Amino acid sequence: MDDTQLLRYSRHILLDELGVEGQHRLLASHALIIGAGGLGSPVALYLGSAGVGRITIVDDDAVDVTNLQRQIAHNLARVGQPKAQSVREAIAAINPDPQVTPLVARADDALLDHLVPTADVVLDCTDNFATRQRINRACVRHARPLVCGAAIRMDGQLSVFDTRQPDSPCYACLFPPDSAVEEALCATMGVFAPLVGIVGTLQAAEALKLLAGLGSRQVGRLTMIDARDLNFHTITLPRQAQCPVCGRRDHTAM
Description:
The chain has ten helices and eight strands. By secondary structure, it is an alpha/beta fold.
């Protein structure tokens, strides 16, 4: 680190848990963020401001005025611009250090198989079940930790999956791929603006701890957040031996 970086990251360096070594790890790491909306906004801003060296952002949507109630990485001047590119501009306005790659694309299997192996952590900031399952399969297949967040109405969820650990479940252990899931979208159901900030910030915190070598105590746990009463409830998730994703030993067949 040069003198400018030592000053910029001084509050991290002062932490016994991080120090110079932890900050060096952040600067040398690569985070893959899928989704640049309500959750992806605080995730990207905190990872960028914290000095994560490389950040790849995948989103195929454009900024709309209805997003601005909660998607804090965007602004009126960037309405109509691809969200991934808007987030890159937002990070650059805070910290020029990270190498940010915006990809205006849908996270399909081919793209995920290309990107996930290059990342040190993957953050699922999406809002649909099928994409979450694709991201999970890719993370299991390529042995990458996955930080998941969700928020709708006044309810949020946070979980971390890392199948490099033998007792860690995957997302499919909690939500089997063949489940009958009714999609809940912000456009029709609504979402409390600060809730996506709470969940996204927690996602960023868990990702930073993983990248800095601190580990995450959230692995294999699901935290449910009720914004009405600001109530947090955490349960432990067992790994399912018959899971069609992580229960297999030959992941190349997935």
